[in-house]
Design brief:
The protein is α/β, with parallel strands linked by helices and about 230 residues long. It has a single domain, classed as Rossmann fold (3-Layer(aba) Sandwich), CATH 3.40.50. The chain contains seven helices and nine strands. The strands form two sheets. It has a seven-stranded mixed beta sheet with strand order 4-3-5-6-7-8-9. Helix 2 crosses helix 3 and helix 3 runs parallel beside helix 4. It is globular and about 45 Å long. It starts with a strand and ends with a strand. The mean pLDDT is about 90. It is found in: Cytoplasm; Mitochondrion. Belongs to the NnrE/AIBP family. It holds the Pfam family YjeF_N. This is NAD(P)H-hydrate epimerase. It is an enzyme of class 5 (isomerase).
């Protein structure tokens, strides 16, 4: 499936690409999280510069998207923002412990009260993901959806299906973030997305680009870690 002249990936292809990056590509999981979170931070800076409000709420799920969110929060802190983290279910990998320690050393607060946090921020970062939404994230997504504040999702809007986009029922019904940062390549779901769309993950080696039919040459400019893609109509 193609979109905007750039191939989009399905769920299985995205999983296989990640595995190959961590296999023959020589990358570790924490390297991929670091590069993904850096791309996300750049996209957030683009759509919501500190002059629009320094308070950023990062909603993190237990999977790798949560790790991407933690890395993004760290970079945003260095960019002059004041991030707050909601991370109720830490992943089992020790990477999450190290990322949490990094937040603590910078004085970045964690909160368990997402309802109050949603009222005391200027921008919401959705790093939850997961098509099967279990407590407490069902209520979190409902509250996030109801907020009038701008929202940026990392790679996949939470509750969306990678292949088929937004759900027709459940807490994610009608959830549509304002911005999306796709990682490595857009997923099939982007045909349902109407906001500002960025691509990040400027590290895919040419042999994997060729294998997965990705043509990213010339997409990124200068030292940019992200590229904005045209809106789909």
């Amino acid at each position: 499936m193609a979109s905007l002249g750039i191939k989009t990936l399905g769920a299985q292809e995205a999983i296989e690409l990640d595995k190959e990056l961590m296999g023959s590509g020589g990358y570790s999981l924490d390297q991929l999280m670091e590069l993904a979170g850096l791309s996300a931070a750049h996209a957030i800076y683009k759509v919501h510069p500190p002059s629009n409000g320094e308070r950023i709420l990062v909603l993190c799920g237990p999977g790798n998207n949560g790790g991407d969110g933690l890395v993004a929060a760290r970079h945003l802190w260095y960019y002059g923002y004041k991030p707050t983290i909601y991370f109720p279910k830490k992943g089992k990998n020790e990477i999450f412990e190290r990322l949490s320690t990094q937040m603590q050393k910078l004085g970045i607060p964690f909160t368990e009260d997402y309802e109050t946090a949603l009222k005391e921020t200027d921008h919401i970062v959705d790093a939850i993901f997961g098509t099967t939404i279990r407590p407490p994230f069902d209520a979190v997504i409902t509250a996030m959806k109801s907020s009038p504040l701008p929202k940026t999702s990392i790679d996949v809007p939470s509750s969306w299906d990678i292949e088929h986009g937004p759900p027709s029922e459940g807490p994610g019904k009608d959830f549509a973030p304002d911005n999306l940062i796709s990682l490595m390549a857009p997923k099939h779901l982007v045909k349902y997305f109407k906001g500002r769309h960025f691509l990040g993950g400027r590290f895919c080696p040419p042999y994997l680009e060729e294998k997965y039919g990705l043509d990213l040459k010339g997409l990124y400019k200068g030292v940019d870690q992200i590229a904005e893609l045209p809106r789909l109509e």
